[in-house]
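User: Okay, second chain of the day. Same drill as before: sequence in, structure tokens out.
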Amino acid sequence: MKRIVILLSCILSFLNVGAQQQEYIRLITDKDCYLAGEELWLKVCVSDKDNQPMDISKVAYIEVSDAEQVYAQAKIDLNNGWGSGRIQLPRTMPSGTFQLTAYTRYLRNWGEEAFNRQLIAVVNTLQSSDKDRVEWTDSLPSLPVATSSKLSSDKQTYNKRSKVVLSWKDLPSDAFGWTLSVVRKDYALGGVPQPASYTPVSQPQAFPWIAECEGHIVQATLTNPTVQTRTARMGCVGKNIRMFEGKVSKEGKDYFFYTYGINNMQDIAFDAVLVNPEEKVRLDIVSPFAEIKAKELPILPLYSPEKALLERSVMMQVHTLVPDSSNSQSVARALHNFTPYITYKLDEWTRFNSVRETFIEFIPGIRSIKRGNTHIIQVFSEETGQFSYFKSLVLIDGVPIDNHEQALDYDARLLEYIHQYRGSYAFSGQIYDGIVSMTTYKGALNGLRLEENASLFAYEFPQKGIGFPMKDYSDEAEKASRVPDFRHTLYWNPSLEKDSHTVEFYTSDLKGTYQATLRGFTEKGAFWEEKVDFIVE
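Assistant: Same drill. Structure tokens below.
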């Protein structure tokens, strides 16, 4: 019997994680001062006590908070201890100093004191608040010009929308994890120190937090824990089949879904399989974040000429990011490396109103028969030369449909493909003969009403593949475009190759002094950086 293991879980023996080594997490951001409403770009490094990248955790959690509340959160996908992403800062944040907290699920076993904390500055130019924590001064201190013998630009002064070439040499041999950021120098800030050094943390007596060694663990809780359940399932809505069976907690209230290879925003559907189908229960998502608030934050000393502050505020409101590019995946993608036996593209056939009619008219390998008071869907078996006795696993946009009557009555005009898988499959303690996977044009469960014990959520999985938007003005027509370019951060690269020696990018429409910062980690865990200034006229 062919078995597809759709539940992906960590190998339990691996959870000891080499005598339970503690992780150490560090952050690099594109800049230190932001406007409320801007994006914060960051890089994450998870290492051991000897500053060597660790590959235990696959997800890092980032929070932006003050003493009263958490304002923004993000999950970052980790690969061999490294990850990068962005955080959208809310426009409602007050002005002041904020805490940026980073940790992993596994690191929570050591307590909050083991988390990384560093400070950033946020200025809200859209509204003032009694929660603002800044000290303004009209006396703007002189900003020192950054020069470097290791990092240099090909010119000292550039025009708008001009190419800049940065080059470097003689970098420390023991440094690694290079990043490069280029931002305009607007403010002189005080009270925003470098990340704090780590203090020794005692070894935990217990490890309740399992490491996310394969991928993000989604936790859901039963709205009525007294209802007896057989199991719970989670499916990601879309054209690819990604289903996971829940592992129940000892208390029987929570289910944990060990996912793998799922990133960015996804619609997910939960359903609980009950001992008594007449009972009602629902699964609600449990936040994976620790919700860390700052204990004490310094007042932000802020020096800024009014003109520069107003200009940056206006450009932040006007500026729109270039949409992220995404590579579409094949609709005939393998089911966890299994390909469909046959795929029907419904636009190539005569259209019928319902799935029931579609099966009857031109799909010979799938049928519905009545068993008791309801119909079930079955798939033809080559091994026996007849239709299977057991019901098939039926999916619409990756979500399992136990009520086959609902699937048969579904509007076939909304479907783009029907994929048929032959063979026997085990999932949620049941044996299925074959899988019938139907996908809509949008892959978004169009026109389908979930059963009472099912729930649908928009869920943000760990960020991956989010590239920094760049402008290319090598074409004269593009350079002469009247579309405004108000980029305050001209360049951000969290994965700079150490063997490379130059990068190229273009200036924006904003004049002023810009600072390029090349930063890396040393073998002792400290930051190493070089800075150089140039001017855009």
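DSSP finds five helices and 35 strands in the chain.

User: Thanks, on to the next one.
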